[in-house]
# Entry
Amino acid sequence: MRATGWLLTAAILTTPVTTALSAQAQSRPDQKAFLGLYKELVETNTTISSGSCTQAAAQIGARLKTAGYADADITYFSVPEHPKDGGLVAVLKGSDASIKPMLLLAHLDVVEAKREDWVRDPFKLIEEGGYYYARGTVDDKAQAAIWSDAMIRFKTSGYKPKRTIKLALTCGEETTFAWNGAQYLAKSKPDLIAAEFALNEGGGGRLDDNGKRQLLAIQVGEKAAQNYTFLATNPGGHSSQPIPENAIYELADAVKAVQGYEFPVKFTDTTKAFFAASAKAMPGEMGEAITRLLANPEDKAADAIVSRDKAMHSTLRTTCVATLLSAGHAENALPQRATANINCRIFPGRRWMPRSPS
# Structure
C-alpha cells in the first residue's frame, strides 16, 4: 500500500515507563546484530534518482540466507523497466496450513535528499545525543530493519510458528507515479503475499516531555493524497522592460493564498475516539483544549492550542501545502511559465478531483 497520508485512529493508554531505548543501549550481541543490519540499510541509497532498492533487498536477502533461509524461501522481484526498484518476499513456513499467513510489509525507498540541504551526510547513520540521524532512519527503514531482524531471530532461534509469516520489502512508496512494488505484488503475484492480515507502517505513539509513554495509536484509515499543479503563463519579454503582468508574481499570489487558507476541523467516529483518549492521556492545557474542540469543532481558541502540535493539526483537517516550484528560463528574460506543486492530504469523506499522471 502506498503510504501517502496518515490518520491517527485509536489510542491505547499505557502505563508510563522510564526505560529509554537510546542509541547507546546497543550493547548485547543481538542488539549489535540489529544495529549492523539497520546501519547497512540506512546507508544504502534507495532514492529514485540515484539509489537502488534492488541492492538493499539483496543485502537483506543475504542476511536471511546466512540465518538459514533456503533459496526457495526468498523471492526477489523487479521488472525490466525498473531494475533498481526491486524488492523481496521471504517466507517462514508455519506448522498449521489451515491458518492463513500474516504479512510483514515495509518499503525500502526513501525521499530524495540533497547533501547541501543536510547538516549531516543523509546517507550515513550518525548518533548524537541518543538519536539517530540520516535519511530513512524512521520512514520506513526502521520498520524494514525490525521486520527483517525478527525474521532472522525466528529462524536462528528455531522458532516454529503455527501461522506462516511472510515478509515483503517493496519499493516505489515515496514517489508519486513511480513504479510501486507493493502494487505490483498485489496485481502480479497475489499468491506470493496472500495473507489474512498485514502489519504495515502507520499509527504511532506519543511521549511526554520526560520521555514517558502517553499513548499508542493504531491506523485503520488514511487520508487521500492528491497533488495539484498551479500554472501561470505569460508572453514574456526582456527583463530591461518589465511589465506588471508577471507569471512568477501571479503564481506567488496563488501560493500565498494556499498558505493563508486553513481547512475547517472535521471529525469521524474514529478520530473522535482517538482525540477523546488523547485528552485523557494528555492532562493540562492540551487535554482541556482537545475536550473543548470535541464539544465544539468551531472553537478557534481550542483549535489554536491543539494545532500547535503538527500531528494533531493534520489529523483534524484536510491540509494543502506547496512542495515544489519552477519558474522562468533565463536571468534576463521575463518568465513565460511558472508552476507550483500543491500537495493535499484530504480528510475522509471530502470531495476531491484526481489529477491524471500525464
